[in-house]
Design goal:
By secondary structure, the chain is an alpha/beta fold. The protein has eleven helices and 19 strands.
Length: 369
Amino acid sequence: MLQLSFDEARSLKEQYGTPLMVFSRREIMEKLSILNEYLPGVGLYYAVKANAHPEVLEVIKQCTDKFDVCSPHEIMTVKDIGVEGDNMIHTNPIKKPEDIRFAVDQGVKWFVFDNEYELEKFKPYGKDVNLMLRLSFPNTDCVVNLSYKFGVYADEAMELAKKATDMGLRVRGLCFHVGSQNLNPFKYKEAIAECRRVFNHLLLEGICLDLLDIGGGFPVEYVDSIMPLRNFFTPIRKALDSYFPSTTVIAEPGRFIVGDAANLILTVVGKSKRNNVWWYYVDDGLYGSFSGRVYDHGKYLLLTDKEGPREQCIIAGPTCDSIDVIYHTSVMPELDIGDTLLALSMGAYTSCSASHFNGCLPAKTIVID
């Protein structure tokens, strides 16, 4: 995990100003190395939605030139760094017909579906595209349950795959996502075993699948500790070795690669004592990098190097909206205007959902070694 010293943070602040999102090239590459070690042979398609900053994508491209995209804009963002469409998978289960046409024209060949109505959109392309059928695996051991909105249960999947084949389409694989920031590796094991059952059943029907996509959701450490990574990935690797020893397997890691590779440098721009509680106003908030507090249920460690007695306080963002409060019950020593704060593990689902509300610009992003 990247944790800048406050001397480093103040030096970068003097050079670039704040708010400033600082990524570590070394941390990104280390996470990709861990995945290659613990999930050997699994193709890694970086989930662009986690963070699509071009400099971040350039670093990732040094380790894998494969990307998971969900929209025309993401396709072009990845193409702009020199990646061809046939190195992308399009994983949004619901797409406009014109978005499919755009993706195909850009060379994208792999798409996800989870219902019969989506299949109609692929009929013009026949066997020129490859389809992955998304299964649903609800999960209470994750921060965001990604089977709530998408995916079908195994028995429905079998009928749906046969329907696609009867329409002249080519179903090549299954995919699933057991949830974002998933803390239970055995959810992958259960999903992998169920996918094996579907593979076998479809083979009896004459449908031979040759790809399994195990999604993403691998966790990073925010405020709470997570299990050692070797312990987390071992059950997943063993399940793949047992159930899919000769099948092409891919994954879509996003948060795991960039989540704890970034620190956000902030400045205290105002303070007020209201109802005997200190309010500190900083230059980034819920409409900016801390949008992950809203959309990703994120909890980020906020640090100061100030000393002195700590007391409960409120940390608020820079906009005029009263919802823009980052923490209602933070604990800090008394801060002064101009003080520097650090927020850790800010790399995923933060700046990508930042807005320009109230004319407040998103944090600048830089990549350091």
